[in-house]
Each structure stands twice: as C-alpha cells, then as structure tokens.
Amino acid sequence: MRLRVIGLTAIGLALILIAVVFYRNSGRGNVPLVFSPTQAIGALWHQYTLTYLEPGTGRTLDKQRNDITTSEGQSYTMLRAVWMSDKTTFDQELTWTKNNMQHKTGDHLFAWLFGQLPSGTYGIKVDEGGNTTASDADVDIALALVFAYSRWQYQPYLGDARDIISDIWDKEVVTVNGIPYLAANNVEKTSSSNVIIINPSYLNPAAYKIFAKVDPTHPWNQLVDSSYSVIQKSMDSPLDATSTVGLPPDWVAINKATGAITATGRTDLTSNFGYDALRTPYRLALDWVWFKEPRAKTTLQKMKFFSDEWEKNGMLSAVYTHDGRPNQQTESAALYGGTIGYFMIADPAHAKDVYEKKLVYLFDPDSNTWKQDLSYYDSNLAWFGIALYNNLLPNLTANIPDAALLK
Questions:
Q1: Is residue 58 part of a domain?
Q2: Residue 358: which CATH number?
Q3: What are 89-116's pLDDT values in tens digits?
Q4: Which of 17, 138, 228, 341 lies 20 to 30 angstroms, CA to CA, from 211?
Q5: Domain of 102, in residue numbers
Q6: Where are the strands (E) in 256-365, listed by range?
Q7: H-run or E-run covering 255
Q8: How many domains is the chain partitioned into structurally?
Q9: How many CB atoms within 10 Å of residue 201?
Q10: DSSP-assigned letter for residue 219
Q11: Residue 161 lies in a domain
Q12: Tens digit of each residue's pLDDT (9 = 90 or more) over 293-303
C-alpha cells in the first residue's frame, strides 16, 4: 500500500509539473525556462529594429538625443544586421546611409551627425560640425560591408568597402615621424594644431588586419602596431592626473613633432575612462578572439583595476578618472558590455559572475527584451557584450581565401 501511495504521489507531482509548464507556455509565446544566448540576441535584435529604426527608412534613431542619427549608430546597426544574417535590414541601412550621410564629393566617408535642422527639415547638422567624419564609424561601416560580402557574396558590397577603406587611410590616417595613426576624424590631418586628437576606443586592430587583405596598397599592419602603442602608452602615462591605474582614456593627443602621447588639454575631451573608452576592451577582445593577437591579451591584463573594483564593490562605476576615482556613482549597461571583453580574456575567474549579474540579468525571457528601457548606446553595447561572451560575433572573413577578397 505504501509503495502504491508513493507511486501515485510521484504521478501526481509529474502531472502538476506538466500543468505548470503548460501554464507558463500557454498564451505567452512559448517562454523559455532558461537563458539562451542565441535566443536572447535574436530577440533583442528584433526588438531593437522595432524600437530604434525609423519605419520606412531604417534610420537609426538616438531617442535620448532628440532622434538624431550618428554614423556610429548606422555602423552598429549594419554590423548587427550582418551578424544576424538580416540582409533586408542591412540593405535598408546601407541605402539610407549612403544616400543621406555619405560625402558626395572628395571621398566616400560619412558625415557623423544627421537630424532636424533649425528650418524643420532634416539633414546633416553642419552648424554642429556634423559633416566631419568619425573614424570609428567609417571603420565599422567598412568592416560591416566586408562581412556582408563574405556572407552574401554580393560584389558591390566589396567595392563599397574598398572605396571607404582607401579613403580612411587617405583622409583619417596621419603620419608622425614615419608612423601612421588613426585620427579621430578627417579634420585632424589638415589641422594647423601642433597635436592630433585621437580617441583610443576608435582604434580597431582586428579590423585593420582584415582591411590589409582587401586593400594591400596601404600598410594596415603598421596601423595595428601604432594602435597598440597608443593604447598602451595612454594607459601607462598619468596624462593630466597625478598617477594612473592602467585604464585606457576616452581621449588623448599626439604631438606632431615628437610623437609624445599627452592629454588633450580640453575639458570636453577628457582622460577619463568613460562612455568612449569602455569600447577599448571590447575591441581588443575581438582581436584576441579572431586572431589570437598576444598584444590584445597582454594589454587587457594591464586593466586589472576592473578586477580589483569588482572584488571590492561587486560593481563598476560608469566613469572613472584616469587615476581610478569614480567620477559617477551610477552603473552603465554599456560599460559592462565593453568590459566583459576584459574579464573574458584577462580574468575568467570573475567573467561568469560579471556576465550573469550585469548582462544576463538585464534580459527578461518572459518579454524577450530588456527588463528596463535602455538607451540606444546601452542597448548596443550590452548586446555586443552578450554576443561576444558567447562567441556569437564571428570574423565572417575567416574562411574566405585572401584571393576572394581581392576580386
């Protein structure tokens, strides 16, 4: 009798469990019971297209800044579209970007700022310097185009990429004492200033290695070397602080005569580790994941400050001064999306904890979106971080023969 009761109880419990699972799934779209990275980045991509892409045009809207559009925003959307194999969205983004933000004369680069003008019409915000380029966006758009060619084998993508890549070198790379550096924009090369403004988070060594296959007429591997040099020297130098804790800064300058790395001397272009610099560990992690570049790993290992902060506080502040003082008491989803690259490569013992508590935690599998509204920037970088951690940001040219990229 006792055995029979136990058996019935087990059957009853099983039926209850089935009923619970059925209830969770009924009428609510087959809600997953566990976090799936592939499902999450797919769902978040779909939600992003609904939230931040203008219906009918595909223009990427920065809704926290009066619906402006930046070349950076277009580049992120194009990269995400090609990684998600969403050709329809990619083509829409490419067409709008070429028609509305690409320079019409002189080069194939992109104006950085588009939005509503004082007249009420929409266009490049020239009065705010909007026709100037942002070199990181130009690099990312070109990289997205090379990836698109590799994925879909449509030759015009490669032609567009090659035009942009060549103009990046001609208009945005500045040579100092025989060494090429990627400047922040296309103004620095012809500026009368004695320094060149550089944003270390714009530097993308992994992309330059791919560009070297597409554009062998320029020494892209020299730009790989100078990029690591700039990042490492800017981390080692106190810049405008009294000391350094080894964080990459948002902005630096290079003296045109000596090649010395200095602070910019401008209050709007600080040496803080903040909303720009958080992309540096992400970009270096890509170079390690794609190419096993030893300098990527050793440079990331020098950012041990992040591990110390995590052990001490269980969190990272959104902004730090160059000498390691929190400059904001808030946290940033974008910062965790960027710094997960550091933890993955340099501190795997803490990486899972940071990933689960600060990135996975943001996703709600019941609604298939973020638990709370994220800004355009936070949404992008958090997505990149989740995808990077789960090896879902492949180098799409890895299996393409070099000869195919030279067609």
A1: yes
A2: 1.50.10.10
A3: 999 999 999 999 999 999 999 999 999 9
A4: 341
A5: 31-395
A6: 261-262, 363-364
A7: strand 252-255
A8: 1
A9: 24
A10: -
A11: yes
A12: 999 999 999 99
